[in-house]
Amino acid sequence: MSVRNALLALLEQGPRYGYQLRAEFEDRTGGTWPLNVGQVYTTLSRLERDGFVEGCGEDGDGHVVYAVTAAGRGEVAAWFGSPVPRTQPPREELAIKLALAVSVPGIDVGTVIQQQRSATMAALQDYTRLKRRATGDDPHELAWGLVLDSLVFNAEAEIRWLDHCEARLRRAAQQREAAPEPASSPHPSDATEVAR
Amino acid sequence: MSAVLQLDVVTRIHGTGATEVTALREVSFTARAGELVAVMGPSGSGKSTLLTLAGGLDSPTSGVVRVEGTDLAALGHRGRAAMRRTSIGYVFQDFNLIPALTAVENVALPRELDGAGSRSARKAALAALDEVGIAELAKRFPDEMSGGQQQRVAIARAVVGERRLILADEPTGALDSETGEDILRLIRARCDAGAAGVLVTHEARHAAWADRVVFLRDGVVVDESGRDRPDALLEQAQ
After folding, report:
1. Which of A68, B27, B34, B219 is placed for a possible disulfide with B46 were both Cys, Cβ 3.0 to 4.6 Å?
2. What pLDDT score was predicted for residue A89?
3. Among B24, B30, B150, CA closest to B99
4. Does the pLDDT of residue A185 top 50, yes or no?
5. What is the ipTM of this complex?
6. pTM
7. A156 in reach of chain B (CB within 8 A)
8. What's the alpha-carbon Rg for chain B, to the nearest Å?
């Protein structure tokens, strides 16, 4: 998992204790994925069990300091050297909502789409505002800037997908209007006759 | 803050009878000083029509378009042309620079056409090029510059002479994503410095640089996202 690999990668800079690792992780990612310190220490003890880090005693203030081992370095190199696996897509509430909106009668899908588009656009505006502030070129700002870009591109992708859904629905609606369904007879009374 | 651009219940119908097309239907829209507003919508939604009306390049079938408080229809042809040279700056997707003129000449042209002396027009043009970060390219011709540099020249031309309304039609359409972002940063900075900007785009990532995003569908404003600026809220409360 990424927390494990991220902590190992941070230890490549030199020995650290848990609080330091947490602070550095959050600094690089702008607090987008907060870690609790318990999680950091649990992860460190698993890494130690697996031989990827080793405790090297306490510092002057009583913090247990960890260092990466040779096996740990190999693990970090393997992580950077391989793509992140594309797992089974996580259950995507929005896709499910739209899929159901088109099938449940009486739901105005256009409104569902626009409401989502507005909300996602507002989030995109917030990310962009943060981006405007983070313009520095030092590695930490750059790291946070890349995470922000990832959020920006994901939000953009969602809006593009919503635009695409809307266009498809409109086309489908036009085609339905252009070609009246055989079931709906121009003379409703005839249809009733047949039904009888 | 004052409204630099105001559209009041504006309708634009092209053609008549069977071929009649309503490009904009009763749209009201405001861009205030210091504000960047993005207009988003699929092609045919009326976003380009809105921009050409705002720039006085076209006239509404009904409704009023005001720039800095002046009704564009009341100005007449000549008055609108003068308004376009002094108050309104355009940025297009394909830059629209004159190939036979250098960067500084392109930027100085609107001021010279407006009767400014060539020396003062040139001085203002150099200042505008400096503002967009390409003072050193002043003597280059458009074909000697990259797309991003050409768009910077176009922005300098749009803002030269303290124009307070910037209308940008897909200004990043022909640029890669990072260069496009630099261009948006420049437009944004100009608005932060007090201009009103209207950005027409179909890219959400670019629209997100705006304070407000207006969504157009079939010539109608269907929604708006983004916070109103605090002073706009105060204005409404009064």
Report:
1. B219
2. 65
3. B150
4. no
5. 0.77
6. 0.78
7. yes
8. 18
